[in-house]
Amino acid sequence: MTTVTFADLGIAEPLCRALADQNYINPTPIQAQAIPALLEGRDLLGLAQTGTGKTAAFTLPILQHLASRHEKRHPKQARALILAPTRELALQIGKSIEAYGRNYKLRHTTIFGGVNQFRQVRTMSGGVDILVATPGRLLDLMNQKHVDLSRTSILVLDEADRMLDMGFVRDVNKIVAALPKQRQSLLFSATMPKSIEHLAADILSDPVRVEVTPEVVTVDRIDQRVMHVDGKRKRELLAKLLDDTELSRVIVFTRTKHCANRVSEQLEKSGVPSEAIHGNKSQGARQRALDNFRNGKARVLVATDIAARGIDVSGITHVINYELPNEAESYVHRIGRTARAGKSGIALSFCDAAERAHLKSIEKLTKRPLTAVDTTEWLGEQIVVPAGEPLAPKRGGRGGPNKNRGDRNQPGKHRRFGKPGNQGANAPRGERKQGGKPGGQKQSRRQQAGA
Ligand code: AMP
Description:
The protein has 451 residues and is an alpha/beta fold. The chain is built from 18 helices and 16 strands. It has a seven-stranded parallel β-sheet, with helices on both faces. Helix 5 (118-125) links the parallel strand 3 and strand 4 (128-133). Helix 3 (54-68) crosses helix 4. The model is unreliable at 389-415 and 420-451 (pLDDT under 50). Bound molecules: adenosine monophosphate. Adenosine monophosphate (AMP) is lined by residues 24, 27-28, 31, 50-56, 312, 314, 340-341.
């Protein structure tokens, strides 16, 4: 956080009031850098990911700009367009607009795939001030002449790298081509591969470049541990960890939808209220699951990577990687769900023999070895993995010095993961480099996202 105020940045009083209602005291670094330039009408290239406060960084100036110009809304038109890769992110942005814009009379709507288009068409028929959309459905509605972007004067591409990874590049280009050339354009991306540089060069004009490195900051605040465990015993380990009530709001990540369902069912059976969220669920079911998690009815949310993107739930105490992601970048996205907005958090990763290669690439990417936890007190055994090669499980390993135990000095039973805040337990050795984009399964990701 910075020490300036939103008013210092030029944010108008009605917005400042709404921000105070949200308990936003000071702008985050990306807000402090981006807002003045955006209020001047500059284009912007933002290197930032979720968790940095980027949504407010672009929505506040847009709201202020639209409210200060009393232009009429025209049927089927939107004065500003925000493109997002997934419906979850689109909904999240919509919620932010609602919260920050509560003292203005601006109209906004959200358009995404996977649901009937009827209501979206009806809302657009009257025109809106701000349209938040995923590219696929938006293009569909444009082709059907339900949406007209010929007078849209502000464009935001959020999570542009994800959008390209999900195979939206052609849709995005077609959408951008339908906008007037004279406009203000913003592009946010967590990574800056060549494809994004090209896209930015195409759509931005003399942009201000702002960059925050949230992974380092966020990851720094997270106490990260690995638990070496036999794949067959993960279920038992999870159940035992959850005996500790201090794991009060937990996201469990799995690689597959099938595993997400299975883990959630097992938790329910053992009396832990949980919800699963993944790409096979209908929009309504996903929303219900998220609401239950947000309001505390579900203590655990079991999620796949793609479904979890854009989810913004505060107060997540623990992230548990039930299965390690096969893309190391996803690990950073996953654990960033805890330690949001300046808080600290705990991330525990289960790792079986088959996942050790994934663990290595994660450690390579984050430039820090994860501290191995002695699982003896939960499972009665510890699998010891020396630096180098995998070993067989060591049975009944209670007692005895063990070089690989990273937690020898931790406090007693079932409390060691209780409180987030063991900061510095995994001090970074250096700055994390932005890696290449995750690849593969483009079509299915996009389908999963329902966008
Ligand atoms: P974002 O990166 O936009 O997803 O925002 C991450 C989280 O930070 C969200 O929960 C926001 O509500 C919160 N947030 C954004 N800006 C601020 C701020 N200036 N002060 C406190 N929380 C903030």
